[in-house]
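Lecture notes, continued. The same structure-token format from the folding unit now serves as the input rather than the output. Read the line below as a description of shape only.
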């Protein structure tokens, strides 16, 4: 039984497809894409109390929420508000469109769906005598999932890099987490 036997190739492809789907699903669902220093805000009655509680602490964030790792709010997570009401952008500008693309996180989700469809094609190819078209479809799904994943990573990195014209010290104070590398 060699490495180039049809059965071994199908087994390795199926295991690889399952592993890729599992890792991508875990990555999309977890909050460890980015470690950075940030402010964990809370709503309070007095302004003095708010400024006391708004200390800059280490946070980790994903596609959906941000969590505090230290300070008074350790373990506290809040949903990411991609469209804050007090933001200074207009709804018909290109910036609004970029915020919508970043907020939707469509590319990682699309990648998970395409990986699942490719895995289904590989599984279905075991039951048909003419498998070439089904395996070709699986290959197209897998390549499309990879491209979607790359686009999603580029959009995520550009969203975190921010505006290059602004000279923030925050640009250099972040690192990517294990979910990002999945």
């Amino acid at each position: 039984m060699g490495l180039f036997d049809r059965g071994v190739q199908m087994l390795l492809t199926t295991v690889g497809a399952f592993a890729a789907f599992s890792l991508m699903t875990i990555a999309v669902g977890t909050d460890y894409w980015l470690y950075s220093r940030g402010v964990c805000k809370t709503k309070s009655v007095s302004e003095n109390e708010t400024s006391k509680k708004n200390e800059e602490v280490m946070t980790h964030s994903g596609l959906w929420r941000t969590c505090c790792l230290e300070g008074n709010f350790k373990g506290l997570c809040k949903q990411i508000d991609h469209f804050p009401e007090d933001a200074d952008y207009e709804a018909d500008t290109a910036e609004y469109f970029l915020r919508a693309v970043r907020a939707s996180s469509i590319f990682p989700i699309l990648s998970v769906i395409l990986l699942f469809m490719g895995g289904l094609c590989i599984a279905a190819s075991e039951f048909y005598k003419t498998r070439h078209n089904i395996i070709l479809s699986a290959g197209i799904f897998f390549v499309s999932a990879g491209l979607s994943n790359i686009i999603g990573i580029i959009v995520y990195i550009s969203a975190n890099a921010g505006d290059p014209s602004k000279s923030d010290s925050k640009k250099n104070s972040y690192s990517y987490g294990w979910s990002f590398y999945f």
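Point for the exam: Strands lie at 34-39, 56-61, 65-68, 77-79, 174-176.
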